[in-house]
Amino acid sequence: MSHARLIDRTRSVLDRAIEVYRGTPPGARLAATRDRLDQPLRVAVAGRVKAGKSTLLNALVGERLAPTDAGECTRIVTWYQDGHTYQVRARVGREERQLRFDREDGRLDINLDGLRAEDVDELLVTWPAQALRSVTLVDTPGIGSLSESAARRTWDLLVPDEEETPADAVLYLMRHLHTGDVEFLRAFHDSEVSQPSPVNAIGVLSRADEIAVGRLDSMASARRVATRLGEDPNVRRLVQSVVPVAGLLAETAVTLTEEEVGQLRRIADLPPREAEELLLSADRFVGTRPELGLTEPERESLLARFGVFGVRLASTVLRRKVAGTATDLARELAERSGLNQLQDLLTSLFFERRDVLKCRSALLAVADVVRDFVGPGSEALAGEVEAVVSSAHPFNELRVLSGLRAGWVSGKAEVVAELERLIGGAGGAIHQRLRLPPDADRGELTTAAADALSRWQRRAENPLTSYELAVAARVAVRSCEGMLADLLTEHRDVRTRH
């Protein structure tokens, strides 16, 4: 079933559900769920307190919108969405209030206008931004916060007791795997349509530059740690992948100023040994070398924006002439911070699957209503939900991927690895599924898909194949057939145009 067909069938189920529950409280909830099908994907940024959630969100948006200090607004669930005007609203119960805000030093400063943080249910920030056109980002209070009420808000949003979560997917930040992280992610996946499903969660090894205490090779060390975490069976059951990101450097890279580049050049112009001694610690950087020509406030600002690792890396890049302009430096820092890798992962695992993830959320909402509000027509409606879920190939791929991650589907390592790729575990593009380069031509793709189809047909029909792997193999066969059909359609379209 194509994604367009899946959206149509899901919308049809929602229309039917709205009719069944018209005039009842669930009816309004279902109408809002139907509206969500036409809205951007909703991705929540969650994690333990001080994990760097707001900093990473700013990096993804490309602007310093989310507060990163310990102010009141960090204790409130905040939605960042695209719009034509700049606007901040607070939802208090059923009422929404317009709030005043300022931009100070490029950062958004929201005035709660006498409201206490604990009285505000949500903040809604509407901001015209290219990055927000395809995704609505949700910043959440830290799990494990000293404020129990703040931490509870994240649980209530993403792991509600009665309704489905309003998030289609989650970026979960962790500095290491804590018991609380495991508990939260297990609860986030505890739903009938997706259980257990790591496919709508990505793990981020945040503040990755701190792993090697700010050394230039910090990100290499962080990548090794992230790889080990990603291969851990317990982690694989909870998140689809783990990527290291130096969040502060990522935020600074996308908001870099010419003035900051000029200040960094002063450090880059020092002999390498002197620069290294200057950056042995934050205290040493701020308190020495007055002849450098940077005031103490300027040095403190650089540390706040880059951290020791970022100052060391940026000045080294400038010294080695790897980047000459502010634009070049910003591009280099974004790449080295891990931000580009995370954005590529978001695109292949979330955005290319957005229709599937949104349909999954919508069908889960209908399933919850049918279970909790039994009445005339609800049984037939439950059958419609089951029919869509069981017949939609994208959902079957998600089930097999979940089974692989949970260890329910097993086999030789190379067989399991190929199966995971074929069903979209590394991304939904045809070249990703077939482990070919992005510039592979149609002939290469067709040959590889046909070979994979033949290989998995034999595996599905082999009486020695375990039952679980045989079921998964049939899903892989359907995925291969779908790739071949798409390649044939593309070929016909090209011939028609010519």
Q: What fraction strand?
A: 5-15%
> What structural class is derived from the secondary structure elements?
alpha/beta
DSSP helical segment count = 21
Rg estimate, integer Å: 25 Å
Instruction: Count all strands and give the number.
Output: 11
First and last CA, distance: 29 Å
Major pleated sheet:
9 strands, mixed
Global shape: globular
Low-confidence stretches: 190-196
| Helical coverage, percent range | 40-55%
- The strand line-up of the biggest sheet is 4-3-7-2-8-1-9-10-11
Average of per-residue pLDDT values? 84
Question: Please, could you describe this protein's structure?
Answer:
- 54% of the residues lie in helices and 11% in strands.
- The chain has 21 helices and eleven strands.
- The chain is globular, with a radius of gyration of 25 Å.
- The strands form two sheets. A nine-stranded mixed beta sheet has the order 4-3-7-2-8-1-9-10-11. Strands 5-6 form a two-stranded antiparallel sheet.
- It is α/β, with parallel strands linked by helices.
Any key phrases for this structure?
single chain, 498 residues, nine-stranded mixed sheet, two-stranded antiparallel ribbon, 21 helices, 11% strand, globular
Short structural description:
The protein has 498 residues and is of the alpha/beta class. The chain contains 21 helices and 11 strands. The protein has helices at residues 3-20, 25-36, 53-61, 148-158, 179-188, 218-231, 233-236, 247-254, 258-268, 272-278, 282-287, 296-319, 326-337, 339-349, 354-372, 378-391, 393-406, 413-422, 430-433, 442-461, 467-497; strands spanning 41-47, 78-81, 87-92, 95-98, 100-104, 107-111, 122-126, 135-139, 169-174, 201-206, 242-245.
